[in-house]
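Hi there,

I know you've been waiting on this one. I reran it after we fixed the sequence typo, so this is the corrected version. Both the input and the resulting structure follow.
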Amino acid sequence: MFAAVFAAIVAAVLAGCKIEIQVPEGGSVASVSGAYTCQAGQHCEIGVHDVYFDETFIAQPSPGYEFLLWKKAPLRLCGGKADSCPLNTTGFPGNDNLLAFLESDTSFYLEPVFRKTVAGEYKLEYRESDRPRVIDSNGRTIGSYLGVSEYGSPWDIQVNFKGLPDNYTLSVLLTGSAPLPPDFYHADIAYFGEACEDRFNPMALTLPNRGFDKTRVYMRSPIKLYIPDPNGRTSTRSYKKFWESGSLNCGRSSTPEMRDRVHPLLPTNLELHFPLTVEGTDIVIFQDPQLVF
């Protein structure tokens, strides 16, 4: 009899929701009070049992990494926020719905998104506009939806970078539903070494008889996007390798070396985590092997 009553009391005391912290490679999560710390690769669980819980969590990137935001998904806390995450139950009394969550065994999740940085890269900066926001699967706002692009696809996205006044355009063309324009050459990237690697100084290609758009975003992969060097100069040079957006692979030029007009590219911390959604619409951009950027 006593054992059964004791077990019931213990169960009542331990009842409550949980905060599960999932930390990927690249940093750690800690509370400002110092009461909780969760290191990279760890899965930490915090029981919340009363209306006195009051902690603020911060994401701490490791050297060579940056914190982007808290991941957004069902039951994830602070999703889409790019700063500290305050969590407390002090406002729960008087709200039956919140108290019901507190008394349940529901698990809520807190997960930072860290990213390895590259020296000299430009940082994405969302700027408010009257156009709907484009949001990635982590909840990060990457820019504003512009509408149908000049190449016939429904996806032109305006993006901005810290320290640069210009608006940049990321064009997404689904080649399966729209013909690839014969002059769609601006998205190809030239390399002056034996491989399509950043150490060989990537440059944007443009046809000799065409102008060069310095406000385009160039894509090597969904997590490797460049912009033209704002201080660079367009020139005619020979190159050995190129990344062709139409075929999405790296190829050797048709001759030992080709000469074209080129412009130096610089890395950014813009990454595309699909699907992308356009706020206030039913537009969803899924990753597709035929997407051209």
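Quick highlight: Residues 14-116 form a domain with the Immunoglobulin-like fold (CATH 2.60.40).

Best,
R. S.
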